[in-house]
Amino acid sequence: MKKFLILFLMVLATTMTFGQSKQLRAYLAYSTFDVPGSESYIETYLAAEAGSVVFVPVDGGNFQATIEITMVFLQNDSVRNFAKYELKSQLIQDTAMTHFGIIDQQRFTLPNGIYTLDILIADKNNPTEVPFMTTEEIALSFPENELQLSSIQLVESYKKSTSESMLTKNGFDLIPMVYAFYPESSTVLSFYAELYNSIQKFGTDGKFLTTYYIESFEGQNKLKDFIFRKRMDARQINIFLHSIDIKNLPSGNYNLVLEVRDQNNETVVSNKVFFQRSNPLVQYNLADIASVDITNTFTNKISSIDTLREMLRCIAPIASETDRDYAYNLSKSEDTRTMRQFLFNFWQNRSYENPAFAWNKYEQEVIKVNAAYGTQTKKGYASDRGRVYLKYGPPNHIVEVYSEPAAYPYEIWHYYALGNQRNKRFVFVTKDIVTNDFALIHSDAIGELTNYRWQLDVYKRTWDASNIDETGPEDAFGNKAYDFYKNPR
Q1: Engineering a disulfide at 118: which of 72, 318, 359, 434 sits with its beta carbon 3.0 to 4.6 angstroms away?
Q2: Domain that includes residue 422, residue range
């Protein structure tokens, strides 16, 4: 197993509907860790919004909610570990006071290998509801005596432990940050990770450098104000428990990256984890753009304001939220100098040595998507398929189904790998193939639209479920979307 798959923390955002008044919102994350000399383990973190589940009366005039959870780890169709349990909320006296999360953490010991995790989640107090089920592939690979990093666990809070519990790791009690979303009120990002076998790699008295930083999710660009370095002594297990001040981190999608470097400053092992930030009060730094010197640069040679505007618009699929908003507003102005400065700075951040080459290479991809996915009213880069293509590159496989009797025309794109993610899919649908405008209705990739009822959108042409709890259409001859989704071919 490749190292970048060992250290992967997946965030699932799952929405489930119960009855007519409750919509269970549950979020599951997991991390992988090792115990040198013993077996590795998978740690799961589940959070449900209390306001989204049904509370029923219990003894003493209180109310309580109960969520039924089943997790089964399969390997070659054999059960390797499992848990079936009830997650109970705290007791409350007023069912209107449910502004809190129901948190759970579990550990599953397993040998190295690749596993399929089947998950079933249901609200016990809504027995007529069909339980939600999903499947994820998880890899455990911690070879003995090899330098390895655990997953990066985002932590809501931590303190020194006074007794052992499920939350305890190496003398600290860690409250997991399940949602991986930091609103404006959150000013600190804390994380925990473990490094194994640094003695074997660097020697008993060896030292090494660690770097952790925040990068943009879209462009993988390091944010210069959020780079931190620390020298460490080699240990059998090295612990990382750090906090980062994110008060001035703008809104957007990001990765937290942890790297271990040797004496030659070469990265020998690394890991990253995705998170989102909402911080509308932090605005784009105009002073940084105004100071960009564009003398003798490729952008300074562009005289047409229309060309500059088009360049600003077409970078939206790969730009951060902050860059995207600024570029959009700038494209409506007449300030050609700032346009040139911004564009040069944008591409220099992606290729310091040759920003002009980076732009030319991207421009060729824009030409492709404009030709393939453009419509009479929309450029290809502004379409959903064009955005996904430009952001992630061409898919490894595309299923094109334009004449299935019960379905709207649809496409399913399959990527073998998206950075740290594996086997990710995108489902696009159009009601009229003549327009060539396919809308993204579902993806299981991090940071993308997730819709567990996506099959209903595909088959709305002939099937409109009266039960809002339905996740798919009735079985009918010729309905192939789900099969293509699970097994692209």
Answers
A1: 72
A2: 395-486
Q: Would you say 439 and 430 are in contact if contact means Cβ atoms under 8 Å apart? A: yes
Using CA atoms, how far apart are residues 77 and 73, in angstroms rounded to an integer?
Answer: 9
Alpha-helical regions (H) of 125-206: 198-202
Please list, in sequence order, all residues whose beta carbon lies within 8 angstroms of the beta carbon of residue 129, skipping any fewer than 6 positions away: 16, 17, 18, 19, 122, 123, 469
Does 272 share its domain with 310? Answer: no
Q: What is the CATH number of the domain that holds 220?
A: 2.60.40.2550
Predicted model pTM: 0.77
- Beta strand spans in 419-471 (E): 421-429, 439-443
Digit-by-digit pLDDT tens for the chain (489 residues) are: 233 222 222 333 333 333 335 767 788 889 999 998 888 999 999 888 898 899 999 988 899 999 999 999 999 889 999 999 999 999 999 988 998 889 899 999 999 999 999 999 889 998 777 677 777 888 899 998 899 999 999 999 999 998 888 888 988 999 999 889 999 999 999 999 999 999 999 999 999 999 999 998 887 888 888 999 999 999 999 999 999 999 999 888 899 999 999 988 899 999 999 999 999 888 777 777 888 999 999 999 999 999 999 999 999 999 988 899 999 999 999 999 999 999 999 999 888 889 999 999 999 999 999 999 999 999 999 999 999 999 999 999 999 999 998 899 999 999 998 877 888 999 999 998 889 999 999 998 888 888 878 888 899 877 765 554 555 555 544 578 888 888 777
Whether 387 is covered by a domain: the verdict is: no
Domain final residue pick, 142, 169, 190 = 142
